[in-house]
Amino acid sequence: MNNEALIRLSFFCGTFVIMAIWEAIAPRRMLIISKPLRWINNLSLVVLNTLILRAVLPMAAVGVAAIAKQQGWGLFNLIDLNDGLEIFLSVLLLDLIIYGQHLMFHTLPIFWRLHKVHHADLDFDVTTGLRFHPLEILLSMLIKIIAILLLGTPAIAVLIFETILNSTALFNHGNVHIPKSGDRWLRYLLVTPDMHRVHHSVIPQETNSNYGFSLSWWDYLFRTYRANAAAGQQDMQIGLAEYQGTLKVARISEMLILPFL
Predict the structure, then answer these.
(1) Where along the chain do its domains lie?
(2) Sign of the alpha-carbon dihedral angle for 173, 95, 160, 120
(3) For 195-249, how does the pLDDT look when each residue is reduced to its tens digit (9 = 90+)?
(4) Res. 1 pLDDT band, cuts 50 70 90
(5) Of the listed ranges 23-27, 63-67, 148-152, the one predicted with least confidence
(6) 3 state SS for the chain
(7) Residues 6 or more apart in contact with residue 54 via CB below 8 angstroms
(8) Mean pLDDT, range 154-158, rounded to an integer
(9) Does the pTM of the predicted model rise above 0.70?
(10) Which residue from 250, 256, 208 is spatially nearest to 124, judged by alpha carbons?
(11) For residue range 68-104, what is the model confidence (pLDDT) as tens digits?
(12) Where does the Fatty acid hydroxylase domain lie (predicted)?
């Protein structure tokens, strides 16, 4: 998988550009904060996270999967399955694990301290899907690596999963308008922007719902699905109650120290 980084970067950049253009042409909501301010700081955090991740954990998830295969570690290296089925089950199980991780980050206070950096964004657009504290990024990668080692996930399945996860995170955080009928059918399979926006509501009961990142199935299955915000998509408040009315949380310096305040 020598081209793994290039493949992921290509899909990331392509999806980001598509979503940015879509947001400009057909926005779902009016933004309340200067877009240049938010984008410069949110994207700066992405660059910082990438540098830290490469420095601390230079072995990417795909590389770990290749080692697991070589050493015969993990469930899928112990049972004989068709390659296609193995890839499908791997992607499905990894998506379920990300759902469980997301639920854990909301449930346990020590992890919520990190994750609330993501939720403190006062607007909701494609860059919100990239706004995570570096410690959360590192912890998330460690969880992913452990899952890959236990499952024996094929490297190609990890690459497919990572590409889908990155692309859908940009998609479902998009400030884009999708016709109601299309959104209703699409969310039977995927987490849509209108579905995930509810998760960014300032109301705690709404924040603690719709945990899925890619597939919407887990929210239906585990009864964490909420169809809409009480105030509706246009009038709902985004972010966390304690940070309303301040621009501090839009700056990268504040994002980095937020979990320790």
Answers:
(1) 4-260
(2) positive
(3) 999 999 999 999 999 999 999 999 999 999 999 999 999 999 999 999 998 888 9
(4) low
(5) 63-67
(6) CCCHHHHHHHHHHHHHHHHHHHHHHCECCCCCCCHHHHHHHHHHHHHHHHHHHHHHCCCCHHHHHHHHHHHCCCHHHCCCCCHHHHHHHHHHHHHHHHHHHHHHHHHCHHHHHHHHHHHCCCCCCHHHHHCCCHHHHHHHHHHHHHHHHHHCCCHHHHHHHHHHHHHHHHHHCCCECCCHHHHHHHCCCECCHHHHHHHCECCHHHHCCCCCCCECHHHHHCCCCCCCCCCHHHHCCECCHHHCCCCHHHCHHHHHHHHHC
(7) none
(8) 95
(9) yes
(10) 250
(11) 999 999 999 999 899 999 999 999 999 999 999 999 9
(12) 88-224
**From CA 178, how far away is CA 152, in angstroms rounded?**
38
> Tokens representing 62?
């795909």
Q: Amino acid identity of 17? A: V
